[in-house]
From TrEMBL:
Descriptive protein name: SMP-30/Gluconolactonase/LRE-like region domain-containing protein
InterPro entries, alphabetized: 6-blade_b-propeller_TolB-like, Hetero-Diels-Alderase-like
Keyword set, alphabetical order: Signal
Superkingdom, natural source: Eukaryota
Organism this protein belongs to: Favolaschia claudopus
PANTHER family with a match to the protein in the record: NHL REPEAT-CONTAINING PROTEIN, NHL REPEAT-CONTAINING PROTEIN-RELATED
Amino acid sequence: MFTSSLIPLVLVALPMALGVPIRKSGFQSQVIYQSPNSLFLENIAVRADSNLLLTSVASPTLFTLDPTTINGTLDAVHTFPNATSITGITEFLPEVFAVAVSELDTTTRRTKPNTTVIWGVDFSTAEPQTLGRLPGNASANGLATIPGHPDVILAADSNLGVVWQVDTRSGATRQVIKDASMLPNAPPPALGINGLHVAQVGNSQFLYFTNSAQGTFSRVAIGVEMGVVKTAAEIQTLLNLQPDGQAPDDFVMDPQGRAWVAVHPGALDLLSVPRNGNGSWSQQTIAGNTQGSDPGLLQATSAAFGRGSQKNALFVTTGAGQVVKVNMGV
Ligand SMILES: *[C@@H]1O[C@H](CO)[C@@H](O)[C@H](O)[C@H]1NC(C)=O
Ligand SMILES: *[C@@H]1O[C@H](CO)[C@@H](O)[C@H](O)[C@H]1NC(C)=O
Ligand SMILES: *[C@@H]1O[C@H](CO)[C@@H](O)[C@H](O)[C@H]1NC(C)=O
Ligand SMILES: *[C@@H]1O[C@H](CO)[C@@H](O)[C@H](O)[C@H]1NC(C)=O
Ligand SMILES: *[C@@H]1O[C@H](CO)[C@@H](O)[C@H](O)[C@H]1NC(C)=O
């Protein structure tokens, strides 16, 4: 299914650049925003000027928050029509963000058929544009870009266990991959593939993804051939999160190839692999805890690195309406 020119056969090596040392004592974190009505915050992206963009599954409005103030205000960027929810958000060109907008059935907690629209929000133009619509029962949770391919948006379908491709120029959508490692292992509202991100490893690009219900972190080699996204046959499960019952949500990859993962019920975990690229991935709790009993990090949903004046911080959103700033030091 995949040409060797795109994906070399050797997939195991994960070369690591010199990394930021990780203090054993843990990282300092602070709740910089608490929604007064505990609005469920779902996903986060960061603009170059350091402002945060926040989505909620309980609102059709894309919000912005100034991370330099404590308990600032959620200001509306845009409210999307015929929608109740926004899930993933990703920047695919400088200052141009794709967001996954849909109508949620509040009884079944599933996305209503034919309602998932990927919109483009370009901060240099007034009105958001439709980039593409997902077909039938498809839904979108996390969104991702492929470095070097701004014409492609990837969407994680947590219900069908699928990764969708949306062509931002033609609006065409197609299924990239459907796999057991992406399916929920329990009936709705259990979620399968949730966060997804593409990272460069040596000469290859890999799609990393979490599966919330299965508690796994996995990857598959990925590439684009003539505008069509293709993945390798082999999907590697890198880690089963511990203890059982931890549900990884969205995450961010750092330049050293490590994943900073928002984990339910209430932790930020760092997943990393030893420098030589062999050996197994390990899991370390950076903030919150595995019981979800830290009031400073409840129902972690996504994570993103700060930019501009906030570049030494990592921001975590939570289902309890929090934005938590984690100080990365340096
Ligand atoms: C932020 O607001 C919440 C209520 O919305 C409040 O409980 C909390 O103490 C405030 N934090 C600070 C640092 O003022
Ligand atoms: C919203 O839904 C209405 C009724 O189905 C439809 O007429 C309208 O075109 C929709 N608007 C958008 C922007 O999709
Ligand atoms: C979704 O759209 C497809 C194609 O237009 C249509 O066949 C199907 O009936 C629609 N489903 C619902 C539930 O409206
Ligand atoms: C869409 O989902 C509904 C409800 O779960 C199901 O009855 C229907 O068969 C599904 N349609 C397709 C095309 O999978
Ligand atoms: C990784 O493991 C493989 C197979 O066990 C071995 O051939 C290779 O030399 C190892 N690489 C490093 C960098 O240790």
